[in-house]
Amino acid sequence: MCDCESNRSMDVKTPRNVYLSGFYKRSFAFYTIKNRMPVIITSLLDNLARNKLKLAEKYEEEAKEEIKTVIGQLSKLKYEIQTNKPLKLLSSQAADAKIYNEYITRQANEEGHATYFHTIWLLAECYMYRRIWQIFETMSVLKNFDPFQDKKEESFFTALPLIEQMGKYLWDSIHDSTTPSEDEFVQFMKLNLWGNKCDLSLSLGKVTEENTLFDISSLDKQILSDYSTDIWKAISACDSSSDIVDIVFDNAGYEVFTDLCLADYMIAKQLAKTIRLYVKTIPWFISDVMTHDFHWMLQQLKSHENHVLQNLGERWQSYIDNGTWLIVESDFWTLPFDYTYMARVDQNLYKQLAEAKLAIFKGDLNYRKLFGEKNWDPTTSVDQALQNFNPTKLAILRTIKADIVCGLEEGIAEKIEAEDPKWMETGNWGLIQYSNKIVEIK
Ligand SMILES: O=P(O)(O)OC[C@H]1O[C@](O)(CO)[C@@H](O)[C@@H]1O
Q1: Which of 22, 55, 230, 405 has its CA at 20 to 30 Å from residue 356's CA atom?
Q2: Which CATH class is domain 3-137?
């Protein structure tokens, strides 16, 4: 019996207003740490073992030895998770490691350590991905190797039929002569919301085909809180002093394609002049977008036989070349804590977001970080649950894949729970939320 099964964990659901944690056995955090995280490492181990020869060919012979070391260290990491060992301090020399280590030290229990099941879920899960990266970081030929790259590329290819449909829809919209309309903008936003269903950490690295995501009209009833009109007002208001929109990306593949369709719609219809696209700097939650994934996708589009995709690829490349779209890297997005820390830990990033007229946050992990990784009463207002993380107006688009939610009307959570007991884990329900409460920092 591992420590997580012993009486040190409580056989209850997560109480209200506390941090999500594997400490509560009837939570998605417990299920994730016990089952999903080890499976993710197992599938990484399988992939590496399977591709050893290919990697040795691509990198040098030396890669073979390094893969052995990586496999050994990943297996150790998996064992540490399964046996609920303390989170070891990172040995990496990178700047973020110091911040991780200080935070891990602050989370220590009375026995002087934080363990996977008995600390904040967000820390345990982010830490796993940071530890995976540390293993590669210390290699010599594999030090820049993204172990999830194959999966991300596969997910793009699998989604191509959808991408073609979406691309055509965008192409037609930007080439009609009409002014932007609320209906059209909201349609792009909803397509973008449902794109968040395509996430490889939820499917445990399995690439699946989602055929239903382009014809989304029937999905409206699955949007449990919909502030699309407020977001439209914020983006179309003439009184804004800024013409920058920020998008904090989530997943590569179909989702990021829909992010860019929304971004292009805003540029083409003059709702924004500049769009800043925030990417991750390390391989993250399997499918999160890094700079190289972005460029890889543009390359795929530019060389695709479908003319619309080719044209979009060229058009988006020109946005990058002339600075209409800016790819922004920041280590902050892969730190292990929620966004209330941003104003203290990365003031510059907070101030940068404050320059935008709207910041769009994508996906489930961003949701957990925006709302402090706490089990709010579902009727808690969005503004309250943000706990003063309000650099600018925020649009929050997320399909629900973890047991945290806020901003719902009275009775909704109970109704959906009765209809679909797994509603917080499947990504079948969506949220389009908004906050216009702005908190400046000096
Ligand atoms: O890609 P997203 O939408 O941020 O989701 C990331 C994943 O993180 C989790 O929140 C935790 O693993 C999942 O529920 C979800 O699969």
Answers
A1: 405
A2: mainly alpha
